[in-house]
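WARN retry 2 of 3 for item q-0093 after timeout on previous attempt; input resubmitted unchanged.
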Amino acid sequence: MKYFLTFLLVISGALELLAQDPWEKESELEDVEIEIVKDREIVLPKASRNFEKVPPTTFGETSDELEYFFNTINFPLPLLDIRMRPLRIQGAALEKTYGNYVRGGLGNYSTTYLEGYFNSKRNRDYSYGAHVNWFNQDRGPVRDKDSGSGVFELDLFGKYFTPKVTFSGEAGIDRQQVKFYGVPEPVEDTEKQVYQSFYLKGSMENTSPQDQIQYDLGARFNFLTDDYDARETELEVNLDAEAAITDEIGFYVSGDLALIGRKGMNFDNNSRSLFRVKPQIGFEYEGFRIRAGVNAVHENDTISGFNKFHLYPDVRAAYTFNDKVDLYAGVSGDIQKNTLRTISGENAFIAPDQPIYHSNMTISFFGGITGKLTPELGFEAGINFANYKNLYFFLNDTTNQEMFNVLYDEGNTGVINLHGSLGYTRTDEWSVHVRGDYWGYGTSDIGEAWHRPNYKLTASAFYNLFEKVRLNAEAFTTGGIKSYDFTENQTVNLKAAFDLNFMAEYIFSDQVSAFVQFNNIFSKEYELLYRYPVRGFQFMIGASYSF
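OK item q-0093 returned
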């Protein structure tokens, strides 16, 4: 410390000298040299260390136990009667339905019309109903009452549902009256024809569409009489069934048995039978939907070449070209069942005791295309070529030209049909549909395809205006029909037919509406059967009521 203090004094003195003004007079002190020598070692004594541990601090022992005191408090509660009710979701109310519907009207040609539907209300176990239709026109296009006609129909139907099977039943009567007004010269008393028929039908089918096996087994009995002592009975049993083998493969079978008996003024106990069965396998392969099988038929008609067994191919295929277009094609054959009931329904003016035979479609090739251009606009077009034996035609009788004979081409009759349709539907507002057909015939044993048209074009339209006015329109034209005039001994080409119909209905409420209907607006008295012009302009007004 001594030397250190001495060093500080020296330094402070030197600094003071430096601080003096150099311009002052020089000091009289001479320069000296100071040497500081450090030659002393500082030695400190060793400190003593205590290595003993500090003893822990001790506390008095205390108890960790806590004592709790509970005071019991008793107070009475009144009894609670709690009634729990489950929350119910209120479902949408069912719309009120009207199971009964009647409609009637009056028009020119002394027309009276009455139709009614009567049905049961909603029920899980059964449904039943009735349909009645009366349409009578006392006057016609030729000599007023000499060409009158009328139809009466009554049908009863019902269904009974069980968890496994649904049973159905129907019964009905039908009466149709016409007069033979197609005579060359007026007669004093025109003959009439009245067909009366009765049918009884029953069927059973599985109730659930998810069942592995779907089936429909039914039977029908028909009985027909006319004013010329004709009697025809028909008992038919039919079966349609299908079973899913895998998700892509299914087995299908359909068949029917028909026993037909008929008598007339000049013959008794003419009986025929027809039995057929169609087994098929259906499968899907790379976009194709195919059903392939055979059609085995046995019949005992008495016309030449019949009373034998027939085996036809039955193959149908469809291919989805894209999400808008489907293509289809196939080949098949069959026996076309003909009875007095079916033929008189096509031409009510046939002569008594006409021969009735089945027609043999030996082969048929068909194909076409279906699709939708837009969700509302759909189309279909196709072609069908078939060969028939014993195809029937109508030709006026040589003596009573107001009646028609049924002629059969016992050779080969080639028939080609080109068809196409276009339809546009926009919800329930309006719709338009158009269809066209062309037929070409190549006969063997008869000169022409008598009373069969070469073309037909139909169109229909519907418009719903503000749910208050419904408008319907229909139009059709057909032509190429030929007949033969035995008085002039020449072929007759019937003029093309054109018919336009229109109906407007006004909806007063859900129950009441009124309508006006116009038929054959252009009053074209065309002929679809030679010597039988249709009625001209017709109108009818009426109303309907639901309850």
